[in-house]
Every structure is written in C-alpha cells, then in structure tokens.
C-alpha cells in the first residue's frame, strides 16, 4: 500500500506543478483574476496533499489499515476539491457548464480535513497511544 500512496503522491505533485505553470503562464489571457486565484487555490491544496501523502507513505508509526483510510480520504478529497475548482474556474474558457460541481468542492474539502483528522486520531488517540 505504501507504494500506491507514494505513486499517487508523486503523480498529483507533478500535476500540481504542471497545472501551476499552466495557470501562471497559459491561462492569464483567458481567465479573470478571481478565476486565476481560484485555480491557484486548487493547485496549492493539491500540492499540500501530495506532500502530506508522501509523508503518510513513509510514516512508520501508522498501521497499513490506517494508511489506507488516510489515503482514500485525501485522494478523493483532492480529486473532488481541486478537480471541481479547475473545472469551475475554467468553465468560461472551456464552455463546460459546471454549476452542478459547486457542492463537490466543499465535500472535497471536508474529506481532506477528515484525512488529517484521521491521521491525528490514528497516531495520537487510537489504542491509547
């Protein structure tokens, strides 16, 4: 499982850099400052969670079953949060009608928060640690 978490972390980290560069250099002509700021928020949280998952993959004091829970909460959270922000912030450029994704963004945020919360629980509170 550690290899799967590590691989996912590397991929979303790489994509965060690519998307950050795209936002900084390629989208300025097409998006408003507000849309760019929103896009950058998606990139920033994606990178934060890439680093988070790199840590989780290598953390020795966490049971594999707990790593699985943290991984899925964070991974689904990033896809929902950052993914929906990317689609919503670029919808004027792409023509994709994405208003239905509005509720997906906070759900992704809650899942990312839950991944950190579960890590706290699993490392400090579970089994009397």
TrEMBL record:
What are the UniProt keywords, alphabetically? Membrane, Transmembrane, Transmembrane helix
Indicate whether Transferase appears among the record's keywords.
Answer: no
Q: Which residues form the signal peptide?
A: none
Q: How does it sit in the membrane?
A: Multi-pass membrane protein
Q: Where are the transmembrane segments?
A: 6-24, 45-63, 69-88, 100-121
- Does this entry carry the keyword NAD? no
In the record, the note on similarity to other proteins reads: Belongs to the UPF0382 family.
Q: What is this protein called?
A: DUF423 domain-containing protein
Q: Which organism is it from?
A: Flavobacterium sediminis
């Amino acid at each position: 499982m550690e290899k799967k978490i590590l691989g996912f972390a590397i991929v979303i980290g790489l994509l965060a850099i690519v998307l950050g560069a795209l936002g900084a250099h390629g989208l300025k002509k097409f998006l408003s400052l507000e849309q760019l700021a929103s896009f950058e928020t998606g990139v920033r949280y994606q990178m934060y969670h890439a680093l988070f998952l790199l840590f989780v993959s290598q953390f020795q004091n966490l049971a594999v079953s707990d790593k699985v829970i943290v991984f899925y909460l964070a991974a689904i959270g990033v896809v929902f949060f950052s993914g929906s922000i990317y689609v919503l912030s670029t919808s004027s450029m792409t023509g994709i009608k994405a208003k239905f994704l509005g509720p997906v963004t906070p759900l992704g945020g809650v899942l990312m928060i839950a991944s950190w919360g579960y890590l706290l629980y699993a490392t400090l509170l579970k089994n009397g640690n």
